[in-house]
Amino acid sequence: MGRKMKDLEDDGSPLVLFTIKLRKLREDAGNPTLEQLKAKSGYEQPRLSELFNAKKIPTEDIVRDVVTALDGDADQWLERLERLRADEQKFRAAVDLSAESPAAQITRLQEENKRLRELLERPATVVAQAVTAQELANQRIQAALKLEHRARDLLSKAQEEYQLLHERIPEIETQAAAIVADGANTAFHLELQGRTRHSQIVDEAHRRAGAIMKTAEREARDMLQRAEDRAKEHRANSYASINKVLKNVDRLRAEAEQDRHQASARCASLEMRAKIEIERLVRQAQQQLERVGSLAQAQDLELLLLDFNISGSHTSTRGRHARRSSSGVPVLPAKAQSAADLIVQPPRPDWKGWALPQQGQ
């Protein structure tokens, strides 16, 4: 809600009545503040204050924009504004006529002369017109006498005031000269004091600036020294960390190389053991095939060993692995399935798979 405005003094002026109605429209719209009306209408607060305090007859633009911002009928208010201008002019003229100023009295006399001429132009009731004219003339004479008396009084007062002023001119000139001299003296002393104070301020500023510069330089040197110390410490720590990391890298590289050699040796050992086991199994299979009379298939097993390049290449297959079993009972390995899984390629392109001979062939 907006701040309560001062009440307008209703002097019968059309402008005051117009403004009272405009305030009523603002209250019906929620009594927005001048700041809110400024945002809606685009007019500054001084102009809005003049509008709502009946300072002068407003323009059409501000009435239209403010009434629109207050959700009023702009056309209706523009018509009221047009009537306000005519009514206000008549009101001001009536106020001027009722005043006691010489100009107002002269205006009234002119109006009376106008009415008198209008009466003389009419032929009816000449006596009444003459009486009226006489009365008006008497009134004009009385008014003229009053005006003359007031004019003489005013002229006498003006002459007296002029005489008093003329008599006081030397005194005023003396006082003015004294004031000027005193002012010049005061200005000189103030200037002197100002220069002295200026010098003191400049000296104090130089002294403080020098102290601040020394303090700043000392703090800067301390900060630089601390920064160098921290840099050295960080550099030493960095070198130590890098050396430690490099040592760990060398150690890990050596361990990796050792693990690689161990893995290679183990891989070679496993490969050798696999070949030995394959050759042992194949020899046992050959013995079984020879016992049942399948010499061709036993020969195929020999070719298989040649294809895998393991036939006779391992001394461990010689000796007891190379000897055939003399018990007559087939000796099958305990892990024949896992050993057979090691054979992942066919022995030759035309190989059709393993086929055990039937009993009695």
UniProtKB/TrEMBL annotation:
Lineage: superkingdom: Bacteria
Keywords: Coiled coil
InterPro entries according to UniProt: Lambda_DNA-bd_dom_sf
Keyword Coiled coil: yes
Keyword Coiled coil applies: yes
Coiled coil: 67-94, 213-273
The protein, known as: HTH cro/C1-type domain-containing protein
Annotated organism of origin: Streptomyces nigra
